[in-house]
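Batch manifest, entry 17 of 40.
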Amino acid sequence: MKMKKEYIILAAIIVGLSVYLTIHKSDKVHYTLPEMAEISKKDITKIEISKKNEPITLIRQDDKWVIGPDAYPADSGKVEKILDIIDDLSLTALVSESENYIRYDLGEDQRIHVRAFKGDALKREFDIGKAAPSFRHTFIRVEKDPKVYHARKNFRSQFEQTVDNLRDKTVLSFDGNEIQEIAIAKGDRSLALSKKQIPVEVKPDKDSVKPGKDSKKEEKSRPPETKTIWQDGDGKTVEDTKINSLLSSLSGLKCKSYLPGKKEDLKEPVYTVHLRGIDELSLSIFKKATDESREYPTISSWNSYAFVLEDSKADNIMSVFEKK
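Output type: structure tokens
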């Protein structure tokens, strides 16, 4: 009887421990993550990004993105990264139900509020907080859900933008091979350059020469060899390295930032370069606001807005033909 009683007690203990462990198992997940509605970035036509009630609106116009009511061209690379995050937003864990948002940078003054639309239909809405300690996740809230979640990837910096940061900074773009003429004016000096094709004497290969009349006919019918050179107004050849240096500095030129006001407000440039190819293009650089300034006000025929170039970039463009 004693043995039987001990077995009963032991069985009761085992059952009790099993129940306790089942209820209090520490690594068991007792919640279900909300499912994110599917959305394709190709369908998104408008994005609203707001921090401290200062909204930035990105709108798709045809295949390009513009910013706000002024329709400034947006930086396609930065917009694409934003679209990728909205498209692939994925929750990985529940972090907090306490509604203590300040510790996650999800308070009213810290959070970044994002809304993505397809036409007039709201397709995605979430608040972005700071990066998680692992820097592989970001704290977020989804729509009206008060809970705080981990979202995959560290992406707050992609949305922490200003209008100027999101604007496309490309101010001049062209194919250098298409340029045929260059005209430069700096102060009271000017320089005109043009691309020319000149014949090149090619000595026939001895092994390929065949004696007789046919070989002479063949030599006459062969088109003459030519090479490309640049010449100034006096017909003097200009070094290719200087031409290439100037064109590479101008093609794909990006500004530091944009200026308020109109292009026409800037008068009397200190340097102007005109380029003629398939299109005619120009860049005009103006005097610095002060001697201590490190920026040159500039305009380009390729861009609708006045902007500034860093002094190192502008000085490099203006000094190409002054270098020995």
